[in-house]
From TrEMBL:
Coiled coil regions, renumbered to chain: none
Keywords of the record: NAD, Oxidoreductase, Porphyrin biosynthesis
Cited Gene3D superfamilies: NAD(P)-binding Rossmann-like Domain (3.40.50.720), Siroheme synthase, domain 2 (3.30.160.110)
EC number: 1.3.1.76
NCBIfam families from the UniProt entry: cysG_Nterm
Top-level lineage group: Bacteria
Name used for this protein in its record: precorrin-2 dehydrogenase
Keyword Transport part of the UniProt annotation: no
InterPro entries: Met8-like (IPR028161), NAD(P)-bd_dom_sf (IPR036291), Sirohaem_synthase_N (IPR006367)
Catalytic activity field: precorrin-2 + NAD(+) = sirohydrochlorin + NADH + 2 H(+)
Pathway where this protein functions: Porphyrin-containing compound metabolism; siroheme biosynthesis; sirohydrochlorin from precorrin-2: step 1/1
Length: 190
């Protein structure tokens, strides 16, 4: 169990970077979908593949993982049911400078996939810092209910641009009104 693990909450732009998923089951499928949503170039290596993987725009290699498979990868997901394969792939990933997501044991990787909520260009990621993905998912679902729509966000963007065109006290006053409006819309006390 992860207790007191210090992680850096960050959004990474890995668009068009190579990701390798070692494993072909349901967990690998979920990770592949997440990677594709972030526009990574995904290769899946596994002797057995979940049928839904065949419908996705990924490179499939239906075979066991081999040393050398991870060359050029920026991110590696190890998601097999074999601890020896997961350990070998994670070790190679580190040697080639790739970040590792270890699906079976988060403490053995540098990358954790949070629960997310998205709407109108706003993305919120929720991690628990522990092995409680169902808590993170529940929080993300609750947060999703609070996210504003496109029209509201567009109005706030316009108000911010107008405020930034002002100078001095007028600028600060307009930005404060915008902050107050956003907080009120989201139910945050002033």
């Amino acid at each position: 169990m992860l207790r007191g693990v210090s992680v850096l909450p960050v959004f990474l732009n890995l668009c068009a970077q190579r990701a390798v998923v070692v494993g072909g089951g349901a967990v690998a499928l979920r990770r592949v979908r997440t990677l594709l949503a972030a526009e990574l170039q995904v290769t899946v290596i596994a002797p057995e593949l979940h049928p839904d993987l065949r419908t996705l725009p990924v490179q499939l290699e239906r075979r066991p993982y081999r040393e050398g498979d991870l060359m050029g990868a920026r991110l590696v997901v190890v998601a097999t049911d074999r601890p020896d394969v997961n350990a070998a792939a994670a070790a190679e990933a580190r040697r080639v400078g790739a970040l590792v997501n270890h699906a079976a044991d988060a403490t053995l990787g540098e990358v954790r996939f949070p629960a997310t909520a998205q709407r109108a260009g706003v993305q919120v990621a929720v991690g628990t810092g522990r092995e409680l993905p169902m808590l993170a998912r529940a929080v993300a679902e609750r947060v999703a209910q609070l996210l504003p729509g496109d029209a509201q966000i567009s109005g706030w963007v316009t108000a911010r641009e107008q405020a930034l065109s002002l100078e001095g006290a007028g600028r600060e006053s307009a930005l404060q009104r915008l902050r107050d409006d956003i907080q009120a819309a989201l139910g945050v006390p002033a």
